[in-house]
Write a structure and sequence with these properties.
about 300 residues; alpha/beta; globular
Length: about 300
Amino acid sequence: MPVPPVGPIGVVLTAMATPFDRDGGLDVIGTQRLAGYLVDSLGNDGLVVNGTTGESATTTDDEKAAVIRAVKEAVGDRARVIAGVGTSDTAHSVHLAREAAAAGADGLLVVTPYYNRPPQEGLIHHFRAVADATELPVITYDIPKRTGVAIEVETLVRLADHPRIVANKDAKGDLESAQWAMARCDLGWYSGDDMLNLPLLAVGANGFISVVGHLVADRIRAMALAFHGGDVCEAVGINRALLPVYTGIFRTQGAILTKAALNLKGLPAGPVRSPLIDATASQIEQLERDLRDGGVSLDGP
């Protein structure tokens, strides 16, 4: 079977949760255990740390650097470690990019600045400034439902001219825009919305930066292999079997139920940090049903 077109950061990466201890402090040992499990047991090509699912909004700069160092030590050269460094402040994002490089990151994920809603020229300046700050490859992250502003196709085309801007994480939910962007530039393309994993493959995506990869990275890899190998029916079957997992993890905020799922499986996760709140008993019961319906074993790692 032919392998799928491999993008610049691989095929399957998990947007990794940040394990905390009972008191809400960073659990470095748990972070390393979880990273090792995701790479060695589920076959992730890479891990994206300090992103939305990693609760980056509530971790300090020092904690972010500690997470990068811990994960890099845990996985070595077996997987790429991509560090989220995007903020609503370009100068702070540049600082985080340099800190991530110093901590050993293999690449940077830069979300669209949020809350201040810059114009497209502001986005170009922001992304280029971060890309100029280090020698690391940069992945733009387009998620307007969180940030308030989308990266327009023309902006992505212009950003693709930068030698270190190599890929886009697409959580825009706009297949028309995705197709035009992929047709007009050579950025690697990664689904950042698990429910659209297969549709984005169908229009040219290389792979996934996934939340459900905590549980089923091996299965979404199999879906990519099947699709790009020409077995579309097999890919559709895998995707349909995973629908309860896609829906289940996002019945409330994704980090909340990701950590609930990891805790159910006996993997390091711990609580979420305020203003997030841990899943309720009824939410956990529903999550268990969703995961079992999606073929996820809860018997342990």
